[in-house]
Write a structure and sequence with these properties.
The structure holds two protein chains of two kinds.
Chain A lengths: L3 E6 L3 H13 L3 E6 L5 H8 L3 E5 L7 H10 L8 E5 L4 H4 L4 E3 L2 E5 L4 H11 L2
Parallel strand pairs in A: 1-2, 1-3, 3-4, 4-6
Antiparallel strand pairs in A: 5-6
Chain B lengths: L2 H27 L1 E7 L7 E2 L5 E2 L1 H13 L1 E7 L2 H10 L4 E5 L3 H4 L2 E3 L5 E10 L14 E5 L3 H12 L5 E5 L2 H9 L5 E5 H7 L5 E18 L4 H16 L4 H9 L3 H93 L4 H28 L6 E4 L1 H19 L2 E6 L6 E4 H18 L5 E9 L4 E8 L6 H6 L17 H11 L3 E6 L6 E8 L1
Parallel strand pairs in B: 1-4, 1-5, 8-9, 8-10, 13-15
Antiparallel strand pairs in B: 2-3, 5-11, 6-11, 7-10, 7-11, 12-14, 15-16, 16-18, 17-18
Helix pairs in contact in B: 2-8, 2-9, 10-11, 12-13, 13-15
The chains are: A alpha/beta, B alpha/beta.
């Protein structure tokens, strides 16, 4: 079975590492991490992820701007993107992610179980 | 028409006829007396309606009434009156002064109606003040008037040359002064006192010839009339309360006093008017002040409320800003921790202690996350999802959720839910959050074996639905009472309290236009939280 490719974009490097370790440990996912959204489109074109987990608040470029860049590129526009944010709460998003302002959002801190539920819900 | 009414009408008709006949008879039996009058107010004169008036007229009318006379007044100038008396056209002439010369032609009463004397009035331009100033001046008087004659004698005695012109009566004398035809006018003092002021005419210091005002008849005739007048006037003068003095008072009676009384009357009326105006203004002002005070009090209360809301909004703004920053900075490490623990849980062989440590770490992360969540909830104005709810059912749901906790803490829960409370439109989840939060607070404040009352009631008069949570704990200190709703204020700092619970509760209640109050019980034991919504 092909592993689902997950791209995690979060300036907090350790979060990416942890998510990668936990997801890949399941044997079902291949995870790549980016600590900046500046090269998100290039990385996505190259990696061809099935799902992108995108942090909202980042120093170089914020999550919504990265999202727009991805959606404007023909090769990446169809890749499902879920925001990962510290500002929203589970009450706002629902336990396995929800829609705020038309965009799927997952709130931190995120457990692996919640993350997998979310990936299954939104990935291709 | 009934026969009784017919009889009554006939009786009334005959009575009227008898009265009419009696009057005719009485009129026929009165003695006619013709009296000559002229212009010498206030002794005798005619008013605007040409009716005879004055002291002499009033007194003579009174005497006529008593003596059975029917008086007819004949008006004329002074010389005409003298001539009429002399020729017998009139029976009596009133207001005449005795002289030896006149006594050859007329008989006089002995009793005077009033004493009078002559006075000189002058134009302002003439500069006449005393007898010494009248040289070469033109003096006006009434021909054959006693005072005029006496004044001429006076000038002759002082050897003062002046020119004399004559008028028909006293008004004619004053007209001559006003028209500049004469410098000085001679009149009786009573007339002068009444009409001698104004129109450029002034009273001088020239006073002379005091005389009695008498009534005269043709020589040898009408003696019975003169005697009757003497008798009646004498009688009236003896009694200080008689008609005589009332007449004198009426016309002169103390003209000054009357003027003063008139002044006093109008002054009193004006003062009373002013007083009423003042009282009215006072009442109006008082009402306005009361209304303004009410308005100001209401405005002050509103201002205070707005100020409190602004302070609260400012706090919220600070907390909101803080919440986002803290959330971002704390939730990232929490994510790392939770992800790390999950990884290690799979990698490290199961061991009771290790599981306990991981469990503790997860709980700690959960607690930290709940604080952040509380902060974010507090700072966020959520949209309300309003539905029509039964308050009692809503409270029952909260109690069901809390039951386990109460049992565990061995706290007795008392329900006092008033039946039949009207429904209320609220965000069900938010109000449940309020009730649960208040129950949790009460639980934490209660000691073991304590009791908590959840009460609902409807105040029909105010149209208010009230939810109360009452505990039997130790109550709240006065310092804490003032800060209960401040964000981050907690009395359970070391026991997991974030200090946001009651702030969030207040936020939710106010979003529903409700009010919340927490105070110590009147009994002195425990506290009570009172949430009020408009029905």
């Amino acid at each position: 079975m092909l592993k689902k490719r997950i791209l995690v974009i979060d300036d907090e490097e350790v979060i990416g590492q942890m998510v990668k370790m936990n997801l890949e440990d399941t044997g079902e996912y291949a995870v790549e991490n980016l600590t900046s959204g500046l090269n998100a489109v290039g990385a996505a074109v190259a990696f061809k992820p099935d799902f992108i987990l995108l942090d909202v608040v980042m120093p170089d470029i914020d999550g919504p701007a990265v999202y727009n860049n991805l959606k404007e590129n023909k090769d990446t526009k169809d890749i499902p993107v879920v925001f990962l944010t510290a500002i929203a709460t589970d009450q706002d998003t629902g336990a396995s992610g929800g829609i705020i302002g038309g965009r799927p959002i997952l709130s931190k801190p995120i457990t692996t179980r919640k993350l997998i539920e979310c990936i299954k819900k939104y990935s291709k | 028409m009934s026969p009784e009414r017919n009889i009554m009408k006939k009786i009334l008709f005959f009575l009227a006829l008898i009265l009419f006949a009696a009057n005719l008879y009485a009129a026929d039996t009165l003695i006619p007396v013709k009296v000559g009058i002229y212009e010498d107010a206030p002794l005798v004169f005619t008013g605007p309606d040409k009716n005879p008036q004055g002291i002499c007229v009033d007194l003579l009318d009174k005497i006529a009434q008593k003596e059975g006379w029917k008086i007819e007044y004949l008006y004329g100038s002074w010389p005409e009156c003298l001539e009429r008396l002399k020729s017998g056209q009139i029976d009596l002439l009133v207001d005449i002064i005795y002289t030896d010369e006149r006594s050859k032609l007329y008989d006089f009463t002995k009793e005077s109606f009033i004493s009078d004397w002559g006075e000189a009035y002058a134009t302002r331009e003439s500069g006449v003040r005393s007898i010494l100033d009248i040289k070469d001046k033109i003096v006006a008087g009434v021909s054959n008037d006693m005072f005029y004659l006496e004044f001429r004698k006076l000038t002759k005695a002082f050897n003062i040359k002046c020119k004399f012109i004559e008028a028909g009566d006293y008004p004619g004398v004053f007209r001559m002064l006003e028209e500049g035809k004469a410098d000085i006018g001679v009149v009786g003092r009573l007339y002068g006192a009444r009409y001698g002021q104004g129109h450029g005419i002034e009273r001088t210091a020239i006073v002379f010839s005091p005389q009695d005002s008498l009534v005269a008849a043709q020589k040898g005739k009408n003696q019975e009339l003169l005697e009757a007048i003497d008798r009646d006037i004498s009688l009236m003068k003896e009694d200080k309360n008689s008609y005589y003095y009332r007449v004198i008072d009426k016309w002169l009676g103390n003209a000054k006093a009357r003027r003063f009384l008139s002044f006093l009357f109008w002054f009193s009326v004006s003062a009373l008017g002013l007083l009423l105006l003042f009282i009215s203004l006072s009442v109006i002002l008082k009402t306005q002040v009361a209304r303004r005070t009410r308005d100001l009090t209401a405005a002050y209360a509103k201002l205070k409320e707005t100020q409190e809301q602004l302070i609260q909004a400012a706090k919220m703004q600070v907390v909101g800003g803080l919440a986002s920053g803290v959330a971002h900075e704390v939730k990232n490490p929490l994510t790392i921790i939770i992800q790390g623990v999950e990884y290690l849980e799979r990698k490290i062989p199961p061991d009771a202690n290790i599981r306990m440590v991981f469990g503790n770490i997860k709980n700690a992360v959960g607690r930290a996350d709940s604080i952040i969540r509380g902060l974010l909830d507090f700072s966020r104005v959520s949209k309300l999802e309003m539905t029509h709810e039964d308050v009692n059912l809503l409270c029952e749901r909260c109690l069901a959720l809390m039951k386990h906790q109460f049992d565990k803490e061995r706290i007795r829960l008392v329900k006092e839910l008033q039946p039949g409370i009207p429904g209320i439109t609220v965000d069900k989840n938010k109000i449940e959050q309020v009730v649960i939060n208040l129950l949790m607070n009460a639980l934490q404040a209660s000691s073991e074996e304590g009791r908590i009352i959840l009460r609902t009631r409807f105040e029909e008069e105010e149209g208010e639905i009230i939810i109360e949570v009452e505990d039997s704990g130790s109550g709240i200190s006065p310092e804490a009472l003032n800060k209960l709703f401040d964000p981050f204020f907690t009395t359970k700092r070391g026991k997991g309290g974030t200090g946001l619970g009651l702030s969030v509760v207040k936020n939710i209640v106010e979003m529903h236009n409700g009010k919340i109050q927490i105070r110590n019980n009147d009994s002195g034991k425990g506290a009570v939280a009172i949430v009020t919504f408009k029905a």
